[in-house]
Amino acid sequence: MAIQNEKYYLWSDPIAIKKVVNLVHADSIILSTTDTVLGLLAPLSQSARSCLDTIKKRQAKPYIVLLRSKDRLDHFIEPIENFHIENLVHSCWPGPLTLLFKAKRSVPTFITGSVGTIAIRVPDHAGLQAVLAQCDGLFSTSANLSDQPVPHTLAEVDPTIIDAVACIIDEDNRMAHHSVASTILDCSHGDIRVVREGAYPIEKLQTIAGIQFS
After folding, report:
1. Torsion sign, CA atoms 193, 199, 203, 204
2. 101-107 own/partner pairs: CB under 8 Å, 24+ apart
3. First-to-final CA distance of the chain
4. Segment 91-133, tens digit of pLDDT
5. Cα(124)–Cα(34) distance, rounded to whole angstroms?
6. Domains, the chain, ordered by start
7. How many other CB atoms are found less than 10 A from the CB of residue 168?
8. Distance CA 32, CA 171 (A)
9. Cα–Cα distance measured from residue 181 to residue 36, given in angstroms and rounded to the nearest whole number
10. What does the alpha-carbon distance between residue 161 and residue 147 come to, in Å, rounded to a whole number?
11. pLDDT band with cut points at 50, 70 and 90 for residue 200
């Protein structure tokens, strides 16, 4: 796979952070390593959402929203009134845990999807944290075409995705790259339900929450 040098950066390069922030503000799509799997990142705009759908060849399925910290939750969801869920938020973020909440009515449907829920994660990644400090949040999704395997390396990313993104951000140390997706828990019904087991073990999460999941 040939990658144009002018669109390839390393997270350790201060220029990379500035580049990503500028591209986010310009409504562009970025391919990068994260603290989970290789991901596509985009600003929280309707046009960027449409671009992600086109690149991944999928529709009507919302994306995970990355936030810098739990302190930004109140922009997207109503106050959490379940202390088991609060335990997860306070103990597991930043980290590879995605929580599904019922979204505020004021949150646009291009972020929530048709069912009115929003999937949120706070990443444990210095580069992403630096970018998120300068924007409201980011759409995040695995760097694969819909219904295709999630790539573990940049060499496995579909060439059409490489061509479509404005920038590629990699790790200096390839051994530092992670390739396990986040665990997803649905907290939108009042209880906690397992949607996907990933990098965060369910047993450990149940201990932290103080409850067995559905």
Report:
1. negative
2. 101/73, 101/76, 101/77, 101/187, 101/188, 102/77, 102/78, 102/188, 103/76, 103/77, 104/75, 104/76, 104/77, 104/78, 107/76
3. 43
4. 999 999 999 999 999 999 999 978 899 999 999 999 999 999 9
5. 8
6. 5-68+122-181 (3.90.870.40)
7. 22
8. 9
9. 5
10. 14
11. very high
Q: What is the DSSP string of 77-119?
A: BPPP--HHHHHHHHHH-SSSEEEEEEBPTTS-HHHHTTTTEEE
Give CA–CA dist 129/67, Å, rounded: 8
Let me know: does 15 contact 129? Beta carbons within 8 Å: no
* Predicted confidence (pLDDT) per residue in 127-170, tens digit: 999 999 999 999 999 999 999 999 989 999 999 999 999 999 99
| CA–CA distance, 63 with 188 (Å, rounded to integer) | 16
Token readout for 81 is 């009134």
Rounded to a whole number of angstroms, the CA Rg of the chain reads: 17
- For the chain, strand residue ranges (E) read 8-10, 30-32, 39-43, 64-66, 97-102, 117-121, 138-142, 167-170, 183-186, 193-196
CA distances from 125 to 52, 60, 141, 164 (A): 22, 28, 15, 24
Element (H, E) at 50: helix 46-56
Residue given tokens 């929580």 in the structure block: 99
Distances 14 to 21, 70, 136, 169, 173 between C-alpha atoms, Å = 11, 25, 20, 12, 16
Query: The tokens of 199 are what?
Result: 């990098």
Tokens representing residue 45 in the block: 């705009």
